[in-house]
Design goal:
Length: about 190
């Protein structure tokens, strides 16, 4: 990691204007620091484990608890820095996957799985940030956690409760949720 970038972030879950989780979504995946959430509420600690956080500190925490977390984070960063060249090479390889070659993307959390032919690549990126990189006419968001390359769609099949199955040319079946149904039907002219 570069010296002028943040390596370690202690982040309060409840921050004015936006919460800590929303703040993390604004950070570029390739510059994501090691994050330790701090919170006074147990329910936020549970949510923090769903996000790739390094640790969480439940308030009020004492100096020994903080020191232990800081020591673990330093060791983690030292190990990570040893692998940083390999990680940057992998990121560069992933950036070379042309968007038009991606069949579909799924991202239920803060990681996106890019499906490219028979390969799947994982990147730390939210669906919203990823969606902005696609050409609007070529990519169709069919579900809260799924974007499809429009050129890969073979057909739509009605399914249960107003939902559709999106059948891709390679045989993959994905769910088109009711939320996105009208927009997709209009985009595809059906």
């Amino acid at each position: 990691m570069a010296r002028n970038e943040t390596d370690l972030l202690f982040l309060d879950v409840q921050v004015p204007v936006m919460d800590g989780f929303a703040l993390l979504e604004t950070l570029p995946p390739e510059r994501m620091p090691v994050v330790t959430f701090t919170t006074a509420y147990d329910e936020h600690a549970v949510r923090a484990f769903k996000v790739p956080a390094f640790d969480d500190l439940l308030k009020p925490f004492d100096d020994p608890r903080f020191g232990k977390t800081l020591d673990r984070a330093r060791k983690h960063l030292a190990a990570q820095n040893g692998n940083s060249d390999r990680l940057m090479t992998l990121l560069d390889d992933l950036r070379q996957v042309p968007l038009e070659e991606i069949d579909w993307v799924e991202a239920p959390d803060n990681y996106a799985s890019l499906h490219v032919g028979s390969e799947t690549h994982s990147v730390r990126e939210t669906m919203n940030s990823f969606e902005g990189r696609f050409d609007g006419e070529k990519s169709l968001r069919i579900h809260q956690s799924t974007i499809v390359n429009a050129d890969r769609i073979k057909e739509l099949r009605p399914w249960l409760h107003g939902e559709y199955v999106v059948l891709l040319k390679d045989g993959t079946e994905l769910t088109l949720s009711r939320t996105y149904r009208e927009k997709i039907l209009t985009a595809l002219g059906t």
